[in-house]
């Protein structure tokens, strides 16, 4: 295959996944949340059980007026949704789907790259919060900054543990090195990574920065139309990314029966299972208060992650 | 931490919550897809009021008893010449019978009070309007609901017989059967005086 065709296939595949997977997760959330609340959810769009609801939403968002508040810092305000969305697109490049190099861009420092790029999300929150010139946005942005900076630590520590166990920072390498008994060995790290990841993408019950019952919509208050849709899309891509990372790092990625041929299916299935848990938690748990949020991070997750690091090191040295 | 102060395993509440939502998800929702599927209304649903014009004698009882005076009746008298009678009889003819459903509170007193069963409940409820003035239904519109009136419910098999049945039974039994028929028909007959 010539280089340009190879490149085109990879880019198209990533963009396609980037556009389709979040919609599937979003639709699943619509339906799962509805049925968990004894409702039916969308039933009309697309004629069959509202399968086209999110497409209809997208069309609606495109039609809406794009408003920039007069007091807002225009450039930063308009740039923030893209900054929120773009890092996830880059992360998609590094996520391995199956064995034998089924990844858009294999990198030796894949894990480091992914975590570094995910950290850019904080900047988007701060940009939108400050540039909106709105008190609710600012409050939401400050909460978001405190939360994201706090939860970055357990996220990185938990990921470091599994990287240490595998002896590599390459995401395909970690999946190659993964063994089923790691499920038990790395269980604390998996739980810490999952919870910190959910907090990183500001999903309920960790949606203190958005908190629509007290802060209107947090840092997204002033956004309308397509820019608001970008923020929403970023949220759902975030679910896919965190689910996929949890799958790759802790649930063995493509490992499973017939991994040689159906590896990609295993990765996707595990990713959607984790995404279902994220939706499930959203429906079930009430929002954490700001002090509870910080307490959970600093007094529970960080110590557990540090303990896991020690455990990983001990097991690694002994075997 | 449970609210009644009992010591429970940490995290049990979180697991219980997850179990509740998962169980709810696996159960069928009770949502009715209304515009697509018509709802199953309970018997004697109060949708709107139907008028059987032939039964109306313009006695005005409904209009007088209506708590918010939403029934408007106009009529004129008509002479009916009966062959063989000494003089022509007079009869009320209904000109106008309107119910303003923007005022009606669906108490059903007009239906209860009508001595000739000219008014009936029907379970039809789809008569919303974009203009409030259109909620004033005239007698043609009220009459159009008549085919939708359900048949009256069957009598309670354990209940007392109706006045008419009791009277008929007493007449059929004749004066000899006084002991059995004395108490019930007598009470029924004297009811208007009491």
Question: Can you tell me the residue ranges of chain B where pLDDT is under 50 for at least 5 consecutive residues?
Answer: 180-194
Question: How does the major sheet of chain B shape up?
Answer: 3 strands, antiparallel
User: How many helix segments of chain B?
Assistant: 6
Cα-to-Cα separation, first versus last residue of chain B: 67 Å
Shape of chain A: globular
Q: Could you spell the SSE succession of chain B in H and E letters? A: HEHEEHEEHHH
Number of strands of chain A: 0
Helix fraction of chain A by DSSP (H/I, runs of at least 4): over 70%
Total helices of chain A: the number is: 12
What oligomeric arrangement do these chains adopt?
heterodimer
Interface with most residues: A-B, 14 and 13 residues
Structural class of chain A: mainly alpha
The H/E string of chain A reads HHHHHHHHHHHH
Strand order of the largest sheet of chain B: 2-3-5
* Distance between the ends of chain A: 43 Å
Please tell me about this protein's structure.
The complex is a heterodimer of chains A (319) and B (194). Helix content of chain A is 71%, strand content 0%. Chain A has 319 residues and is mainly alpha-helical. Chain A has one domain. Chain B has a three-stranded antiparallel beta sheet with strand order 2-3-5. A two-stranded antiparallel sheet of chain B has the order 1-4. Helices cover 28% and strands 16% of the residues of chain B. Mean pLDDT of chain B is 82; it is low at 180-194. Chain B has helices at residues 12-26, 61-65, 109-113, 139-144, 163-173, 178-190; strands at residues 48-51, 71-80, 89-100, 119-122, 136-137. Chain B is built from six helices and five strands. The longest helix of chain B has 15 residues, at 12-26. In chain B, helix 5 runs antiparallel to helix 6. With 194 residues, chain B is α+β, with helices and mostly antiparallel strands. The interface between A and B is medium-sized, with 14 and 13 residues.
